[in-house]
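Worked example 4.2. Below are the chains of a multi-component assembly; read each line carefully before continuing.
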Amino acid sequence: MNERQALDIFAALSQETRLRIVRLLINAGPDGLAAGSIGEAMEAASSRLSFHLSHLETAGLVQSRREGRSIIYSAVYPTLSDLIEFLLRDCCQGHPEICTPALAALSPCCEKPKGPANA
Amino acid sequence: MNERQALDIFAALSQETRLRIVRLLINAGPDGLAAGSIGEAMEAASSRLSFHLSHLETAGLVQSRREGRSIIYSAVYPTLSDLIEFLLRDCCQGHPEICTPALAALSPCCEKPKGPANA
DNA sequence: CATTCATTTCAATATCTATTGAGATATCGA
DNA sequence: TCGATATCTCAATAGATATTGAAATGAATG
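Applying the procedure described above to all four chains together yields the following C-alpha cells:
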C-alpha cells in the first residue's frame, strides 16, 4: 500500500453511494451481490451504479465476476486491512502508545457474539 | 461515529496535501506542529494550508491551539480509531473471519521495534 | 501605539467529480 | 437467430472542491 493507493481508496470511500455499497458488500460476505441487487438496494440507475462500482473496483475495494447474465461484485477484504495498516503504521514507529488504544477499540468488534454470557 | 462523519473523514483524507499533513502530525506526536512548520514541510502557501487545515479540523482529524503568535495543530488519534472501528464493525457482525486477519495484520505495527532480535 | 510576524478570510478561477439519458455490448432462452 | 435481460460506455451538464493572491485579523515587541 503506497500513498497513491491510499488516496484512491479514501476518495472511493468519501462518496455516500460508494461507502454504502462497500458496507453492503462487506456484510454480504464472499459470495457478493449482483450489480442489479446492489442497484435496487441503492435505488440508483444502472449507469450511475456502474460508475461507482468501477470506481470501487479501480481502487481495489471490490472485485467482480460474471455469472450468467449478471455481474457479481464482492468486497476485497485485504484492501481494507492494508488501508488500516497504512494509516497506523507510521504513527506506531516510535508512538506505539497511540496505536494500542486503536487496536483495543477494534478487538471487541471482532468477537463473535455467540452467547449471552460475555465471559 | 456515523456515516456522515465517516464520509467527511474519508473526504478529508482523500486529498494528497491533507493526507500528508495528517501523517506528519501523527508522527509529530501530541505536541503537534505550528501551522508555519507544516506549511514549510508541505511547501504550501499559507492560504492553501489554512484551507486544508480547517478542512481537517472540521472532520475532527486535527485540533488546534494558539501558542503566542503561532497556532499549533496536532492529530486527534481517537478519530482515527473510531473510523477504523466504523469500517470494521459492520463486517464483523457475523463475519469475524473477515476482521480477524485485519487485526492480525495490524498487531505487528504496534509492536515497539526495540531490539534487533525479532523473536 | 506602530510595526512585524503568523495565520485566516475572501473572491475569482480552474479543475475534478457525479449524474443523466441514450445507445452499445454480452448472455440466455425460445 | 430474435427478443428479452443485465450491465456497461459515452458525451453532455451540473455540482463540488482546490488554488491563487490580496486583504483582514490577532498577538507580540520595541
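Take a moment to check your reading of the output against the notes. DSSP finds six helices and three strands in chain B. The domain at 3-76 of chain B is CATH 1.10.10.10 (Arc Repressor Mutant, subunit A).
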